[in-house]
Amino acid sequence: MARPTPKNNEKILSESEFIVSKTDIKGKLIYGNKIFIKISGYQESELRGQPHSILRHPDMPKAIFKLLWDRLNAKKEIFAYVKNICKDGSFYWVLANVTVTLDANGSVADLHSVRRKPSAKSMQIIPDLYAKLLAEEKKSGMDASIKMLNKILNDKGVSYDDFIFDLQH
Questions:
Q1: In sequence order, what are the residues at sequence separation of 6 or more whose Cβ sits closer than 8 angstroms to the Cβ of residue 77?
Q2: Among 16, 51, 66, 115, which has the highest number of CB atoms less than 10 A from its own CB?
Q3: Considering all CA atoms of the chain, what is the largest pairwise distance in Å, rounded to the nearest integer?
Q4: Are the CB atoms for 133 and 63 separated by under 8 Å?
Q5: Do 45 and 124 meet the contact criterion of CB atoms below 8 Å apart?
Q6: Strand 91-102 with 108-116, pairing
Q7: Segment 83-117, tens digit of pLDDT
Q8: What digits encode the pLDDT tens for the residues 58-76?
Q9: Which residues pair with 92 in a beta bridge?
Q10: How far apart are CA 165 and CA 159, in angstroms?
């Protein structure tokens, strides 16, 4: 599926809207609620079986997704701010909570994501932070971007999780 060309047109979730999706362990979509389908601009049939990454906006640093996959592979949940791209090139920001579902043997069965509108406070910080991480990534690679993020967090004296939670409240 061809990636849409980004447009400077933001779609904004309401406070009461929650996007829900489920993927298999490789990140291929197996479920999306009506809000997810509506905001993405795709038909449900276009999404099912596709990698969730078809919604990845080019403004997103790979470092954030590495952190996400590292957590999920360790069977831990993660909260992350994500900028997604819609079928028409519009974009939307979310605070995503991604968790693993374990089967009876303790193996990962699937991934479940619930996303909500990010706080105004987070949107004053995250877009600029991600732009810096992305610039570092383009200049020196993803590992350099991860190092930059870790340095920022260390300088603030906070963990990644505390940083994210503080921005949402």
A1: 71, 97, 98, 99, 100
A2: 115
A3: 46
A4: yes
A5: no
A6: antiparallel
A7: 999 999 999 999 999 999 999 999 999 999 999 99
A8: 999 999 999 999 999 999 9
A9: 84
A10: 10
